[in-house]
Fold these 2 entries.
Entry 1:
Amino acid sequence: MGIKRQQIEDFIYREARLMDEHRYDEWLALWTDDAVYWVPSNNDELDPMQSVSIIYDDRGRISDRIDRLKSGMAYAQKPPSRMRRVVSNLEVEEGGNDEVTVYSNFVLTEIRRGIRNIWSGRTVHRLRMENGDLKMGFKKVLLLENDTEIPSLVFLI
Amino acid sequence: MALGERPSVNYEQLIKTDRVHGRLYYDPEIFRDEMDKIWHCGWVYVGHESEVPEAGSYVTRQLGFQPIIIVRDQERNVNLFLNRCRHRGNTVCQHEHGRSNLLRCEYHGWTYSTRGELVVVPYAEGYDERFQKQDYGLTAVPRVGFYRGFIFASLSPTGISLDEHLGGAKEYIDMFVNLSPEGEVELRAGVQKAKYRGNWKMMAENSVEGTYHAHFLHKFHFDLIKARAGVDASDPKRAEVWGHIRSLPEGHMVEDFRPGKRAPGVLAKIERFPPGVWDRYVKAMEKQYGKESAHKIIADDSQFVFIFPNMVVLQTHVRRLQPVSVNLTHLYYQPALLKGVPPEINTARLREHEYGFGPAGFLSADDLEILERNQLGIEARANEWLLLARGIHREEIDERGGSVGHGTDEGHLRGMWRHYKRVMS
């Protein structure tokens, strides 16, 4: 495999930290141009072409999401959430074309306006090398909460 | 005061023509009174026939605070029952949706047909001759009504008909549904579930008020539309851009874009359909409705509608409000798929929906935030009136019995509160 496990772990942990710290531009730079960012609703396995998701973004929409967060007009992040997440249970699956699929679990504590929310779930990343840098072309977040009533989800998950 | 007796609320003192009192949003006593008089008495939107497509398909819902089952029987009728076993009161159906030809209570095995008849009582010899199974069927919801596939229910055996309740709102449901060349929408694309720490009426008031608050709260989204679709709808002073805000009898509210220059469907143009898809849709519409009518239906698109007390029909979806407590509300956003259209059209509707709506949607997330701030704000107990006076000098009485005003006015809210006061007093 062209991609070492250490590189993969570094990438996954760094991505988590960038989300926790609202480092929007650096996070955006992790994506490939053909990116898909998917947070399913109700059920982890529904077909996004036929069922609604909580988030189903292409690269353009990921950029819009970031522009919005940076604009000062994403009111659900004014003031921003304080967050720390723990990412663990990493499993790596090699694919063709120097692509790897990474499975991990997370627990995220979010505090905003004195209210603590615990978010948790499993993430599937597909990573590949692009011009010497590891990038994510696909990220699917299987929220444990995706079939329950949740507050607004505007921070990066 | 005797046990169980409640102090009566004087709604006349809390609801004036041009303002309402903050207590209406935070007083638990008023909330309980609303559950009795609105949610456990009047017509409430509970679901759509497409959610129970097959014989035996069921969904469980709440009607006010009461658990209900919506189930399709073998004769393909849709029945509504209280989700309560006639034996000891256990819930009979546990899942939010499922399919079963028999509904069996798992506590003692009492089993009901999809028509609600009690068909199995284990160890029936334990009852004497006074026990007759036909006396113990599931309790039917007293009144059920259907309109264009949407299911409404009332726990009161008497009252106005669903037809009277919907009144002028039917025209707007028609517009939404007629965008399908088969004249049917389907709520089978899942649901986004959300909640906010605020009173349910705040979402009612926020839901079809986009024209006034959009330029502030949703400015980013408007700017996006401008950049993507080349439509600048950002100047509220250009009155010709704006449509009308309407109140309808029975507390319904409408943001009617037709008189204005802006069609709400503009968001759809953000999406780029593959070649030929749009033409195929238009052809299917023409075949069904005739060329002229089809073009008018497509050009009119749908308007934004709130149907009292808990249904929002808006652009891509149908939204259901479910009060939990005086300051907590659950929301269910269900995209409406158009039956008989190229699949790409429905997929684009899903993507358009996610862009704006649901817990991570660019519009909804800000709305949920602003409603929570609103609930916090009204904790300040001075100058407790919320002003609803916009456009009071320029609204007209609609021939349908409601009011019509400028798109940024609050006549629709005054109309909803007039209805509320009538029901609650």
Entry 2:
Amino acid sequence: MVPLHLTPVDYVILVLYFAFVIGIGWRLRKSVTSSTEFLTAGHNVPVWITSLAFLAANLGAQEVVGMAASGAKYGIMTSHFYWIGAVPAMLFVGVFMMPFYYGSKARSVPEYLKMRFDEKTRGLNAITFAIMTLFSSGISMYALGKMFQLVLGWSFDASVLLSAVIVLAYTYLGGLTSAIYNEVLQFFLIVVGFSPLAIISVSRAGGWTGIQQRLPDVMTHAWRYIGSADQNPMGVEAFGLVGGLGFVLSFGYWCTDFLVIQRAMAANSMSAARRTPLMAAFPKMIMPFIVILPGIAALALTKMGSGYALPPKGDSYDYDQALTTLMAQFYPSGLLGVGLTALMASFMSGMAGNVTAFNTVFTYDIYQGYLKPNESDSHYLNVGRVTTVVGIALSIATAYLAAQFNDIMDFLQLVFGFVNAPLFATFLLGMFWKRATGHGAFWGLLSGTGAAALTFCLSVAEGKGGALGVLHSFPSQMAQNFWIAIIAWTTCAVVTIAISLVTTACPDSQLRGLVYGMTEVPHEAGVPWYMRPAPLALVVLACLCFLNLIFL
Amino acid sequence: MLDLRLPSGAFFAITGLILVVLGVVSNPHAPMSLSASGPDVNVDLYTGLVMLAFGAFLLLLARRGRSA
């Protein structure tokens, strides 16, 4: 007995989508004649496309399904992931950091680190990033296989192989351009496929006022219960939230992760690269209404006894099934096909994003950087293509590893968190303090990761951590994560500054275009305000304040 | 270079059309409004119309972009 039943018309829509996706890759295959076109889209993509791809590359299915689940579990506080986390970070990267990324002419984020710092800092970042993208791609394949098995009764092997073959087809044919173009189609599909669910489920629950009446106050207010950790279901307090989630984790992801930065770097000019995250911030602000509201409505509908109920799990609910059970309840055949295609699309965009980031970092930073530096461009193009195939094969292997050893995956994701937590400190110092040195950056990163691991081993939350003893006990794992990030960031910043001050500074001539004060500010006179980064960012910021006030 | 508005416009127009036809054929008397207790609204029809309009809009933009 599976919750979703497809009719032939649903399959028609799914197959139609696959045909378009592969068709786009097929049409783009002729434009790929060099490694830069294949791996960096040749800096040739219009800004409306890069900004939607910037958004969609991160909008994997785990995000869509996970946000609905968090909505049901934590209520409107989940919106902090967007309104305190992602959006301010996107503004920061567009206004302040993109001039250095794009202006450096680096082909990847690790390559920027090589230009700014040194070889070992780049090596550390490139190798950890390559491993992490492979695992994320594999984990999203695993999640797809599990979900389609659960809700449709499809075979795990068939779902994994089908999605892998389609992603391989369009990324192999058209490279990054093809991945980016398809991410835009996927973004539209996600919006069209899930908005009706938000509208139907919220109106069925009696609108927002109906939801407010049926749920405890804490579920419908984002800020009122944030003063202390024991008042809200997330178990976090304001400083941990704003500092850990907002400042360290979100800025760390949106400002340094090559997966998203790569989309902005594909833009056709410096101005377009800076506007990419800013224009992406507008739809990003609206996403909570599409992905979080259905989860909150699902809980309200459950409390109403309306004929819909979240599936039980233990003495609580299986929140991860909120989205799919709502679809089963409210979507007729036809729309169900669209919703399912949107889900498939978001899995594939997550996978393709990781694969295209992996092949660029591997080809340019690992293969060209360390293995074979002086080959012809057509050689690197071939390596890029082969890496795409190998990357997808390794992702499939990872998906099966995840299916076999769930604990290993949990452990690896924990370790990846430790590696990522200090990154933002390194980039911030690298871009805005010209005295920061390669030795400082390298040891800062390592000690930040070490501090994260140590914090985890010395604290405990919901039974996790505390391997070396318990100095502090957190009310929730989320609070523990936020504080690990804060400590890792601070350690990395302090160590980087201390070691930089006792090592030799880089000569100014090597820092041109890479550091604040050594880079020409882009000329903006005569450009209309809506094309300039700072006014755009202020408009987004005003909308953001407004949204936070509504759900105070 | 391929104009992305063409394939995405075509995809949404075709899918929208499928939903509109399905909505009209399978559920011709569904009500217009959504409420907490009322009967099911014809979501296929309305979503289909929105997708069709969006697809047509993209195709129109692509056409104007080409002639310009």
